[in-house]
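Weekly modeling sync, notes
Attendees: S.R. (lead), two postdocs, one rotation student

Agenda item 3: backlog of single-chain predictions. S.R. asked that every request posted to the team notebook include the full sequence so nobody has to chase files. The rotation student volunteered to paste the first one in as an example of the format we agreed on. Action items at the bottom.

Example entry:
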Amino acid sequence: MRATRTFMAATALGGLLLATACGGDSDGGSKSGGQGFTPPKMSAPKSLGRTEGKVDLIAWAGYAEDGSNDPKVDWVTPFEKQTGCQVSTKVAGTSDEMVSLMKTGQYDAVSASGDASLRLIAAGDAAPVNTDLVPNYRDIFAGLKMQAWNSVDKVAYGIPHGRGANLLMYRTDKVSPAPDSWKTVFEDAGRYKGHVTAYDSPIYIADAALYLMKTEPDLGIKDPYALDQKQFDAAVNLLKKQNGAIGEYWSDYLKEISAFKSGDSVVGTSWQVIVNTAQGEKAPVKAVLPKEGATGWSDTWMVAAKAKHPNCAYKWLDWIVSPTVNAQVAEYFGEAPSNAKACDETSDKNFCATYHADDTAYWKQVHYWNTPIPQCLDGRTDVTCVPYARWVQAWTEIKG
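Predicted structure, as returned to the notebook:
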């Protein structure tokens, strides 16, 4: 399962050329197309050659299991036997670590989240991907293809792996009435002072921006990852007010489960896997996707621009999103699979319903993590947006 996703540092994407933003997608809550910069010129391969016998990966914990953590959890060994590509995996704990590792040129592919993928593309560390060379790509949910975090100007830079929403979880014996809005952890947080929890990451600023987007329309927020200075200051101020009610910021899901079981935390952000685990351990908790919608994440397998084993890397991309393997990863990790056919392969036949895998209406309410850059992702050209490096600085101030 997911171990941690803290985002401790970032570098600004400066000097990026301005481009025109494109229209909305048919499923997810973010826009696809131009992101306000021009990537270094690179071409995706037109065909694959002989496999090189090895592939070096950077992955989140739980994404490339080889049986060493649990003998029953192993989708790497079958891949090695089928392709002859021996897998070496570097587990990364943060998106910033992934970005740094990719710059070394020592790795062939990475499971990047949306706050890292644009940085990798802009820096020339990730190459365009020829999706025709990944046969299982055809069965990926349409709402995950060619999105703002995995493509630029209609060019794919990766293969979608899985997705999840950041939910509002609460103790049913402590929080009443049952909440249906993020107002509970913002404006009403004082009611639960010392027992409110929030995700420990600069990207959480987008959660406040999303709430303001729905409740203070005069601010003009259209995209929680595209904030001009006034909008950014409003989100930061909301989080500074919330800080007085926070008992703990969390990044380790096991600690959040313990906090809700003990009652140290009674309301705050969570993931579906945390909800399921806490309920399985008899904690009196429920979770909801609030009426304002939610932020969320979608991971993308990207190929390094300097990959030494590109043919094996492509074989891995196709393997990891194949129906059976994608189902195994999704169940172990706790996320919705990206391959629609994976839902027929899960051991728990209710898994995809629980994780809303094919619920288009559900994902329309989710604004997937993206990398804030100076060129506003919502298409505005008359203002400069606050880049992610400033989000990192502000997060330190918010926490005090």
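Discussion: group reviewed the output briefly. The first strand starts at residue 54 and ends at 59.
Action items: rotation student to repeat for the remaining queue; S.R. to check formatting next week.
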